[in-house]
Amino acid sequence: MRNVTLIPGDGIGPEVAYATRRLIDASGVEINWDVQEAGGYLIEKYGTPLPQSVLESIKRNGVALKGPITTPVGEGFRSVNVALRKEFDLFANIRPLKSYKGIETRYDNIDLVIIRENTEDLYAGIEYMAGDDVAQSIKIFTRKGCERIIRFAFEYARKEKRRKVTAVHKANIMKCTDGMFLNIARSISTEYPDIEFEDMIIDAMCMRLVQTPENYDVLVLPNLYGDIVSDLCAGLVGGLGVAPGANIGKDLAVFEPVHGSAPDIAGKNTANPTAMMLSGVHMLKYLGETSAANRIEKAIMKVLSEGNAKTRDLGGNAGTTEFTDRIISFL
After folding, report:
1. Is the pLDDT confidence value at 180 over 80?
2. Quick one: which of 174, 197, 218, 292 could link to 189 by a disulfide (CB 3.0–4.6 Å)?
3. DSSP string spanning 220-241?
């Protein structure tokens, strides 16, 4: 039995987290769920949305499945997601995005993976006012950070039998930061002759993703570009409701859906748990439970392909509980 930290979160988090837990338990995988609370509602009690007990649990178990958490506005608290990434050096953000039959989009043949550097770039948050009328933000790239995310992308592609890695950059303008990222990508690519490599300027990449997304496989990007492009690609496959995510470090991993906490629909049994469930699928693969992960994904795909069995945001009329029950029935 494997110990896994489960962080339900807030808003719709507990609903989609419970649905995912039910589904994974129904698959037969034996997991001891170490449930931990985190969210804005804990600030009054602990003075922080991320109690120390949560960090200790993740460090102890090595793997966490996390629901969405609301970032308090105007209260001086940083994002819980950002805090976890920095605390555990979760340098690789993985967002697999694929087309599913039954979800209406403009495309039906997308199967690509965004691998985003998670700790550097403008998101390092080094900014200040240089006088009353000038604001400056410093873009930080390190050789270590570039090398490990690019090598991670190639190793991921090889492990998952992917055909191509595309490095995305703006090295034509930012010749030091993005230039270093590109040069390192070109150098590392020579170590992987079995994987096709190309590079693409970020603006051209966005255009081509909406023109011919089927031409791309694994994209590796610095932090800011990765954040933007991953949401763009989520839009290509039906939105954030079907977009799973993972944050991977050297010895730890936190799996979570890309979407927010949607407090306006919390507690109404209307939340779509698909992204959380698919995040659970990738967590099971990380744990070596590939057979169960594949069975769960096939069951999800079966229900998504049905008419009214989907949640309302996907064009059906099922509630969160009914949607989950239906998926479990196909295991």
Report:
1. yes
2. 197
3. EE-HHHHHHHHHHHHHHHT-GG
> Does the fold of domain 105-237 match that of domain 1-98+239-331?
yes
Residue of 195, 267, 323, 203 whose CA lies nearest to 12: 267
Asked about 227 being catalytic, the answer comes back as yes
Pick the catalytic residue: 10, 66, 98, 123? 123
Is 203 marked active-site?
yes
Does CATH place domain 105-237 in 3.40.718.10? Answer: yes
Q: Quick one: 310 exposed, middle or buried, by C-beta within 10 A (0-12, 13-18, 19+)?
A: buried
On the question of pLDDT at 40 being above 80, the answer is no
Domain boundaries, the chain: 1-98+239-331, 105-237
**Separation CA 235–CA 233 (nearest Å):** 5
Q: What is the value of pTM for the model shown?
A: 0.92
Q: Looking at 25, 101, 108, 203, which residue is catalytic? A: 203
Out of 3.30.420.40, 3.40.718.10, 3.40.640.10, 3.40.720.10, select the CATH number for domain 1-98+239-331: 3.40.718.10
* pLDDT score of 299 more than 80: yes
